[in-house]
């Protein structure tokens, strides 16, 4: 990586001639050495990301939303998660209540 001797910006390859480095600010140009054109940058590999697999039988333990007894119109399940959202309109002060079936994940809403 080279920097411009005039303004200190990082030199970039030009679209017209890939063998020339050019400053994007002051337009200083420098011919690229053959060694620099074949230079490879290697970055150290970090530790592989861990993937957590959640068993469906333990999924209910991880729920953060409260559940209520409500029959789902789609699958007939009797348990739904619920949460409230305030209406975005400033002239109307209302709350929208959402219900999501814990089995089929169908979501419905009620304005109140």
Q: What does this entry look like structurally?
A:
The chain has 112 residues and is mostly beta strands. It folds into 2 domains: 1-39; 57-111, Single Sheet (N-terminal domain of TfIIb). It has 1 helix and 7 strands; from the N terminus they run E-E-E-H-E-E-E-E. The protein has one helix at residues 34-37; strands at residues 12-13, 20-22, 29-31, 67-69, 79-86, 95-101, 107-111. The strands form 2 sheets. A 4-stranded antiparallel sheet has the order 4-5-6-7, with no helix packed on it. It is elongated and about 75 Å long. 5% of the residues are buried. The mean pLDDT is 78.
Secondary-structure arrangement, i.e. CATH architecture of the largest domain: Single Sheet
Number of domains: 2
- Most strands sheet: 4 strands, antiparallel
Order of strands in the sheet with most strands: 4-5-6-7
Strand content: 25-35%
Output the number of helix runs: 1
At the first level of CATH, the class of the largest domain is: Mainly Beta
**Basic shape:** elongated
- Cα distance, first to last residue? 61 Å
């Amino acid at each position: 990586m080279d920097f411009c001797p005039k303004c200190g910006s990082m030199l970039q390859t030009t679209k017209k001639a890939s063998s020339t480095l050019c400053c994007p600010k002051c337009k200083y140009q420098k011919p690229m050495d053959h060694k620099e054109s074949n230079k490879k940058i290697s970055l150290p590999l970090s530790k592989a990301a861990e993937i957590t697999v959640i068993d469906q039988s333990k999924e209910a333990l991880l729920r953060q939303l409260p559940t209520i007894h409500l029959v789902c119109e789609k699958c007939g399940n009797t348990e739904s998660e619920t949460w409230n959202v305030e209406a975005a309109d400033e002239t109307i002060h209302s709350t929208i209540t959402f219900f999501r079936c814990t089995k089929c994940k169908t979501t419905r809403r009620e304005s109140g």
